[in-house]
Amino acid sequence: MDSPLINVMIKAAKKASRGLRRDFNELENLQVMTKGPANFVTAADIRTQNTIYDELSYAKPDWSFIMEESKPIRGSNPNSKFIIDPIDGTTNFMHGNPNFAISIAAEIDNKLEAALIYSPITDEMFIAERGKGAFLNDKRIRVASRKKLSESILITGIPHLGRGDIDLFLREMKILIPEVAGIRRSGSAALDLAWVAAGRYDAFWERGLASWDIAAGILMIKEAGGYVQGINGKDSDMWDGNIISGNEDILNTLIEKLEV
Length: 260
What we know:
By secondary structure, the protein is α+β, with helices and mostly antiparallel strands. It has helices at about 5-25, 45-60, 90-95, 165-175, 190-195, 210-225, 235-240, 250-260; strands spanning about 30-35, 40, 65, 75-90, 100-110, 110-120, 125-130, 135, 140, 155, 180-185, 205, 225-230, 245.
């Protein structure tokens, strides 16, 4: 049975997803603002975040919040907080691409305790709790067991307007493309991590992400039997948004290859 904490998170995500699905079917009426080069926020992001915040703050009024579309909110209990991305994959959402997700993580005393990544269009609910495993729609998930890069499909982000080191990315591609069965780019880091946890991809790496992009996915990977760390091997690098994950064998091999 799910804990009261994860049940509150599921309730918030489900409630927020109703409006999000409506917005997805009415994209021509969507209000869009630009935060920076190729960095967008929609009215749907704001509404979704507000719904999630209202639900979670009602259940946990003393908790703190870190959310993509607002400044941090410090509660009376600063050692407990939710880390929220209302729409991870906003650009996909804006283009009618269903590959986006709600991402919620709960952290207590600097430890990730619960995680949720929900795909509203496909109705896939990924959840994890520390020490209790990771699940997709109530079915236990595990990272893939492949040991060879030549049999593996990797997932990553690709630099684009205003973001990323293009030269580094091209060097990595030159090294990895001949070694692997395939490399993908989905546009949602949260879903990428969830799919690694479910064994659909063998490994994920990306640089320059935010805590709300990766917090839920970090716990998801660990509870699915995988490994996750900073690309340079340090947790501090991971929380700076430079993250790599997979099973132990593929992760170690990939780290060696990425030392470019």
